[in-house]
Amino acid sequence: MTSKEWKDVKLKDITILISRGITPKYTDSEGVIVINQKCIRNGQINLKESRLTDDKTKKIPENKFVDNNDILICSTGIGTLGRVGFLRNKLNTKLTVDSHVSIVRANKDYTNPIFLGYNLFSRQSEIEAMAKGSTGQTELSRIDLGEMNISLPPLEIQEKIARILSSLDDKIELNNKINQNLEQQADLLFNDLFLEDKDCIKLSEVISTTSGGTPSRKNLNFYTNGSFCWVKSKELNGTFITETEEKINQLAIEKSSAKLLPPYSVLLAMYGATVGEYAIISKQMTCNQAICAIIPNEKYPYTYIYEYIKLSKERIKTLAIGSAQQNISQVLIKDLLVHKNINKIKEYHFKTRYLFELIKNNQIENEKLKQLRDTLLPKLMSGEIDVDKVEI
């Protein structure tokens, strides 16, 4: 394949729809699932953060329903604008998006929808830079989005590129499904042992907690050649953290309130929109001051602490106070009541530690697969890697 076979086109010329979503009429009962900005992250669509809209009292136009292989783009707001997610699997339910999200639907006569999804995903920062408006009110217009230039190879090349990248994401998705099953097993075992157990003790009496810190952003040396993962609240993912967006170095630890946390510490967000979010670190890491780290010990191992925090998430969120910004403190966390029966806790750890190790290993593999995908992505989209003669 030569670069001459690639042609530059406008996004509007290879799509049949570029449109914002609806203004939902939210309901807690039956309705149509609404995808919002929180649902779109890392190229994926996660319905965990979705809500329902009452489609009986407020009819949804047909072109506002999400179709198979549609590409969804966050189109408003600092921090989320530019995020791209796309649906690679057959839909089994009706979905729509709110007015902060744009639906992009490929014209299959000109482009492979999965190829286009990966293309736009690889250009999230470019899409973010297209936004207009004042601080906090930035918007991505449908017209500007349609004017994006797309470098387009022949359809058969698009399909090959889509298959290469999809094979990596398919493996990631399979690992995630396996982990969901493993976590369900751990949940069941926990409930079997502790659901009726009311003999409790304050967390502070048996488990240590601490918080982290943010090395000064004015001193770039703290973030140069960093070797220690530094966890931010938004990275608390409800499972093992194996890598982070940023890393800090030894100097940062010596000159700031950031501190090294032992492997398998359980992290809990204390401030803002992420209150109650949690994760567990797979190795020695650091975290920011908005996170409480709960340190495992011999009597209270990480398996128990993690599962306890996970199943207590909604209750913990109700403890948050404050009007402008909801927050919980370490004092409130230390007052949480944990189970007192050490023998049951040991039994739980013995029965589940292998499940947690499998989950961790799958997460580590997923991180490597994502790194490989993200390395290949720009090279495939630019034609730097020639797939013309590759048999897939």
Summary of the model, kept short:
The chain is an alpha+beta fold and 392 residues long.
Offer a few descriptive terms.
about 400 residues, alpha+beta, five-stranded mixed beta sheet, four-stranded antiparallel beta sheet, 9 helices, 22 strands, about 30% helix
Describe the structure.
The relative contact order is 0.12. The model has no long low-confidence stretch (mean pLDDT 93). The radius of gyration is 23 Å and the shape is globular. The protein has 9 helices and 22 strands. It is of the alpha+beta class and 392 residues long.
Unreliably modeled segments: none
The major β-sheet equals:
5 strands, mixed
- Average pLDDT for all residues: 93
Number of helices: 9
Strand residue percentage:
15-25%
The gyration radius over C-alpha positions equals 23 Å
Please give the share of residues in helix: 25-40%
Order of strands in the sheet with most strands: 14-21-18-19-16
| Structural class estimated from helices and strands | alpha+beta
Shape: globular
Distance between termini? 16 Å
Q: Give the strand tally.
A: 22
